[in-house]
Amino acid sequence: MRSPRLAFICGIPKSRTVREAVISSHPAISIANLSKTYATGFQALKNVSLEIPHGEIFALLGPNGAGKTTLIGIVCGLVNPTEGRVLVNGHDIVRDYRASRSLIGLVPQELTTDAFESVWDTVSFSRGLFGKPKNPAHIEKVLKSLSLWDKKDNKILTLSGGMKRRVLIAKALSHEPRILFLDEPTAGVDVELRKGMWQVVRDLRDSGVTVILTTHYIEEAQDMADRIGVINKGELILVEDKAELMRKLGRKELRLQLQKKLDAVPPVLAGYNLTLDSDGSELVYSYDTEGERTGITALLAAISETGIRFKDLSTRQSSLEDIFVGLVHK
After folding, report:
1. What is the pLDDT of residue 165?
2. Are 180 and 173 in contact (CB under 8 A)?
3. Which is nearest to 266 in space by CA: 311, 303, 295?
């Protein structure tokens, strides 16, 4: 359900629906043929094209050095592109820098903020940087939504790592952006605080804010994202609806727990591409969940004919992490 509290924070009247609030003739983000080569000759991005509609959570996954932070930096105006074009709600990030940047909130990977400022002062100052007039009521609502209100007078240096992350989100929301970038927002945050932060992100999305995140916690991307993008060595190798990605690339494993350990898979079963676990106590069969036939019935019959007996069986669905690792290795 849409959060009225965050809807108000982000400038959406309570009476309007999310869809009505984010209607635009332009995508939230439009990237065309974007490349970045640094002075050292290192090419961080290679001909990246991507469109992100309003009001979705888009997860950008990739190993360290894949180009995630460079891509975010370019869209947010922190890094100059070598080639290509980026539009933020139709505004060119180079020609219309002020208009495009005013629509964006950025939560960086590093915990960079003035350690000796109070929470209230640092969040209020961030709002002023965007030329926004003072609005104590808005700052109060942001801090309360992030469970920071009781810390408003505390100096940043006295806060825990998780609270500092929340302050960074509050700073990013201070000027009421319509697009929020989260670069590894839960790195180093304990599990309980992480869950709370993701609920804040869901509420933001439900209020109409477009959220683009990078994360090393792939299970969170699987739980949170509407669409997934995978970047590797500067190239965007896949963009797909999460559910469709899991449908297309997800596989299942049938694991047979054997009554007696095997030294090797019998040659008569070679056609089934079975694998034997390290201690020889389980046979593992992978199959395509989208195939017309899984082959399980024939496999079990063939195993029975060999005299192999098993005491239990179980199935396991591929996770997003399995898919990600497979794509990157390819």
Report:
1. 83
2. yes
3. 303
